[in-house]
Write a structure and sequence with these properties.
Blueprint lengths: L1 H10 L3 H13 L4 H8 L4 H5 L2 E2 L7 E2 L13 H35 L11 H10 L9 H14 L16 H10 L6 H11 L8 H31 L5 E5 L9 E7 L2 H11 L2 H9 L5 E6 H11 L3 E3 L4 H6 L5 E4 L7 H7 L4 E4 L10 E2 L7 H15 L15 E5 L3 H7 L5 H9 L4 E5 L11 H12 L2 E6 L2 H7 L13 H10 L4 E5 L4 H15 L8 E5 L5 H12 L3 E4 L9 H15 L3 E3 L3 H18 L5
Parallel strand pairs: 4-5, 4-7, 5-6, 7-8, 8-9, 11-12, 11-14, 12-13, 14-15, 15-16
Antiparallel strand pairs: 1-2, 3-10
Length: 625
């Protein structure tokens, strides 16, 4: 027992996670940490990016004995190819999410569904006007059809640039144009990357990576931004409100349903279904007091931002949520879903259901969602969960903690509203040094790190330095469980930032949504730059993903850098086998774009690096350091 407790302490900073890790061990359930141990040590060729499987003359791996692949490619070309395809995977993931949102919006606009509707019509009309679409004297549905077509154009290749490039400060756009990296269309840039990295195409590492920047910008300023804006239009633009977080949000006397993934198209209909009086009555007839819905990862972020639905956990908590023994059904859509959840669920009475044809899991039941039958399918799933409640073994149920409160809902619109309708107070606070700068901490968990240790400590260190922190994705859970997403957390901030937060009654750490909602951070940065008449790269801003793991996180980091935001990562991508690629990422991009990557696993050292960068940017603007 003592060894189990020690191992659990080494794996996570959270008590609810540690208790569940011990229970998983007792129950004979394998977790991500166990599988990591079995996979260690990792392949050094893979870690440094110098193995190539792009054609069947190989596979090849670069070493002193064999410095060239069979085709003649050196380590720089091979690393650039691999990284380009890695970024393409991330861009495709976020942008395909955006495409799903367009298809839902298109179905609403063309009256092909009654399950979805336009919730924020004012925002839709505002964005339509921003896109140059006539709104005066026209019905909302006619405007919606034109806006859907406009957004679909950003996925193709019939234009010079994606629609939201018009939001980018002119100085930044000129840099992109001079470098030839203005994003033209999401699918075009991803397809071109796959073509460029085919054998016999682009064999200049720098050239390949420049296109990688263009492709990632297409994700950030089109795929992800469209996903965020349309989700707001369809389901409501978030405003500040309270919610709760950690495994304590599960209820021992309720039917517990978890939604997991990234797509609000599914989770919003499930939310409606769990509130259906007929289904609530059915749950009570089965012996439950009601139906409890909670979120995991970014689907959880989406529901929490808009509707206040609590979050049970982030990426490394997904298996442990099932280990509680209290979950009847876990409904997934796509991205960041471990295949292991199927096996963990089978150790208990839990059932896992997939909903997206592009994300099926062997061993899980598939219930397909579409625009026409989504409401019906959601009710089917809730009935399925209710019918599993009597199968629960109460002797195996352990909910390890009480939930923690947090404040969520800080869309760009909500921030501007909190400031009295203008960004001027924020600009004035930055100029005066009451807010020295801002950092977006985003993304993942990785079992190679002590769970949330870096996420939590970097956030704490930055707010101590009067640096406002914005969080999205899995970092949200860390900040929330750490008590940093409450107005009272101003006591943990530096005196100046704390004073601002107390005056506005906001936390020093603002939750802006799911990982696709990093587009909100881009938009806010762009608005600030335009307010000051400078480039984004001139602002005292930074981004960080301390515990990242996914292709999407690398793509987010790359579009942040390409947009002019200095970006910290806890560990490097698989590029260290090439000095050309590594030097470009850590130094060369700074000369080209005014931003670059930095790598530092220690959150305290990372805070100092980010602080120094913010001081440098403040000095360049003539502001106090």
């Amino acid at each position: 027992m003592a060894n189990r407790e020690k191992e659990a302490r080494e794996k996570s900073v959270w008590e609810d996670a540690r208790i569940m890790l011990e229970k998983a061990s007792r129950d004979g359930v394998e977790t991500a940490w166990d599988r990591l141990l079995k996979q260690s040590p990792h392949c050094k060729f893979g870690e440094s990016g110098v193995c190539c499987r792009i054609c069947t003359m190989g596979p090849c791996r670069i070493s002193k004995k064999a410095p060239l692949g069979v085709c003649g490619a050196d380590e720089h070309v091979i690393v650039a190819r691999n990284f380009g395809r890695f970024l393409a995977g991330g861009a495709a993931g976020h942008s395909d999410h955006g495409r799903d949102c367009i298809e839902a919006f298109h179905a609403v606009a063309n009256q092909e569904t009654s399950d979805y509707s336009i919730t924020d019509q004012d925002k839709m009309l505002r964005i339509a006007r921003e896109m140059g679409i006539e709104t005066e004297g026209r019905s909302a549905l006619r405007v919606a059809r034109d806006l859907a077509d406009e957004f679909l154009e950003s996925f193709g290749s019939r234009r010079e640039e994606v629609a939201f490039v018009r939001r980018v400060p002119s100085v930044q756009r000129k840099k992109w144009k001079d470098l030839g990296i203005v994003p033209r269309g999401v699918d075009r840039e991803i397809t071109e990357m796959m073509h460029r990295t085919h054998m016999g195409c682009d064999n200049d590492a720098t050239n390949t990576l420049l296109h990688g920047l263009r492709m990632c910008l297409a994700d950030g300023w089109a795929g992800s931004m469209i996903a965020t804006e349309l989700s707001d239009i369809l389901f409501g633009t978030p405003t500040p409100h309270m919610s709760k977080v950690n495994l304590g949000v599960l209820k021992e006397d309720h039917v517990n349903i978890l939604v997991h993934g990234h797509n609000p198209i599914v989770s919003e209909k499930v939310l409606e279904a769990v509130q259906d009086p007929e289904l609530v009555s059915r749950a009570r007839n089965k012996g439950a007091k009601g139906i409890n819905l909670a979120g995991l990862c970014c689907t959880g972020n989406e529901l929490m931002m808009r509707k206040g639905i609590p979050m049970a956990g982030n990426h490394l908590m997904t298996e442990l949520a099932i280990v509680t023994g209290a979950v009847e059904l876990i409904i997934v859509d796509y991205q960041c879903i471990m295949p292991s959840l199927v096996q963990v669920a089978k150790c208990y009475h839990t059932k896992m259901v997939t909903t997206a044809d592009k994300a099926r899991f062997t061993g899980a039941e598939h219930v397909r969602f579409d625009m026409v039958s989504a409401g019906q399918q959601a009710r089917k799933l809730v009935r399925m969960a209710i019918d599993r409640y009597p199968l629960r073994n109460k002797d195996r149920v352990l909910i390890p903690s009480e939930p923690v409160e947090l404040m969520t809902g800080f869309s760009v619109e909500a921030i501007i509203s909190a400031l009295g309708g203008s960004l001027s107070p924020l600009v004035d606070a930055i100029k005066s040094g009451r807010i020295r700068g801002a950092v977006g901490i985003v993304g993942c968990n990785n079992p190679k790190y002590k769970h949330d240790y870096c996420n939590l400590n970097l956030t704490r260190e930055l707010i101590k330095r009067d640096i406002l922190v914005i969080v999205t994705g899995c970092v949200t859970v860390a900040a929330g469980k750490g008590g940093l997403l409450l107005p009272e957390a101003s006591k943990y901030a530096g005196p100046n930032l704390g004073e601002v937060c107390e005056a506005l009654k906001i936390p020093p750490v603002l939750h802006m949504g799911s990982c696709v909602d990093n587009a909100r951070i881009l938009q806010l940065a762009s608005l600030l730059a335009n307010e000051l008449g400078v480039s984004i790269s001139d602002l005292p801003l930074a981004a960080s993903s301390p515990e990242w793991y996914s292709e999407k996180a690398a793509t987010i980091g790359t579009y942040a850098v390409a947009s002019g935001i200095f970006t910290h990562l806890g560990h490097p991508p698989n590029i260290t086998g090439s000095s050309v690629v590594t030097d470009l990422a850590l130094k060369g991009l700074d000369e080209l774009l005014g931003a670059c990557f930095c790598i530092e696993p220690d959150p305290f050292k990372a805070a100092k690096l980010i602080d120094a960068r913010i001081s440098k940017k403040r000095a360049a603007l003539g502001l106090s350091v």
